[in-house]
Amino acid sequence: MSGFDAVAVGRRVLATEAEALGALAEGLGAPFVKAVEILFACKGRIVCTGMGKSGHVARKITATLASTGAPAMFVHPAEASHGDLGMIGQDDVVLALSKSGDVRELADVIGYAHRFNIPLLAMTANPESQLGVAATLVLQLPDAPEATGEVRAPTTSTTLQMALGDALAVALLERRGFTARDFHVFHPGGKLGAMLRTVGDLMHRLEEAPLVGESTPMPDAIRVMTERRLGIVGVVSADGRLIGIVTDGDLRRNFDGLADRTAGEIMTPDPKSVTAEALAGDAARIMNDSRITALFVVRDGKPVGVLHVHDVLSAGVV
Questions:
Q1: Which of 127, 144, 178 is the C-terminal boundary of a domain?
Q2: Which structural domain, as residue segments, surrounds residue 239?
Q3: Of 37, 126, 141, 309, which residue has the fewest beta carbons closer than 10 angstroms?
Q4: Would 189 be classed as within a structural domain?
Q5: CATH at residue 228
Q6: Mean pLDDT taken over the chain
Q7: 133 and 214 share one domain
Q8: Which of 178, 209, 244 is the last residue before a domain boundary?
Q9: Are 89 and 119 contained in the same domain?
Q10: For residue range 124-146, what is the model confidence (pLDDT) as tens digits?
Q11: CATH code of the domain covering residue 64
């Protein structure tokens, strides 16, 4: 098409939506704070609903809330009128999305929320709409122009809904003190889930760990090191505390007269270690930064296992 500049159009769209997002951020205030508190106090589920493009966004918000520890589900407003209203309980909170706020399919959901005194949060650009007037609380979207101009297909408005949903989810996450370990419970698969596995999930248990006493002759220590096939042997004190480690590098550096020495004489003292509760991703970073291939796992200074870089790699952590 003559005169058509795809890059210019793309930049115009992004600039339009970025400006609207800026207005949304500036407009956040007391209603947003109250909405987070209502969601925090919810004893049931957060029921997200919307029609058309707003419905697609509501599904995404549902997934984000659920994955961050807030029980949530999507109810299609049209299906709600044909029996799915029964999915909404009196301990729930309804989050309804509609730019105009005057969507007839939402009427039964609105009426149901009123009948059973269920909090209704409205995400809309029109607080004077049917949805806005009926809502317990309105989260007002800026009445920004759609990026499609005169065509007016939902673009800017759905971006604002998506972003405001993310803002609610993250604020609720932090209000609840939700951590990365909590996230792993709801999201065990994929790269992120692998990074959030704990060292205890991956480590070799104590019975598999190569350990010797500090007075152990080096020929015996090497035998243990070879049998366990992890490239290291840990050295423990008389009371069972980890006090050192012998690696392949230590063997090479002390090759002359090695057979006449003990593990305590050869070891590198105070080796790096982790706890079983540490994230596997953090352990991987320690090994990478320190250029080592294994970490002993300790509790109160005593070994409970050992983590090798191969365990981390096979789990997809790095």
A1: 178
A2: 195-314
A3: 37
A4: no
A5: 3.10.580.10
A6: 89
A7: no
A8: 178
A9: yes
A10: 999 999 999 999 999 999 989 99
A11: 3.40.50.10490
Tell me, yes or no, whether 174 and 199 share the same domain.
Answer: no
Residue with tokens 């149901």: 112
Tens of pLDDT along 71-118? 899 999 999 988 889 999 999 999 999 999 999 999 999 999 999 999
Report CA dihedral (163, 167, 170, 173) to the nearest 10 degrees. Answer: -130
Our count of domains for the chain comes to 2
Distance separating alpha carbons of residues 95 and 74, to the nearest angstrom: 10
Strands 211-213 and 302-308, sheet pairing: unpaired
The amino acid occupying position 208 is E
Task: Count other C-beta atoms under 10 Å from residue 161's C-beta.
Answer: 28
What is the reported pTM?
0.63
Work out the angle between the directed axes of helices 52-67 and 156-175 (0-180°, nearest 10): 20
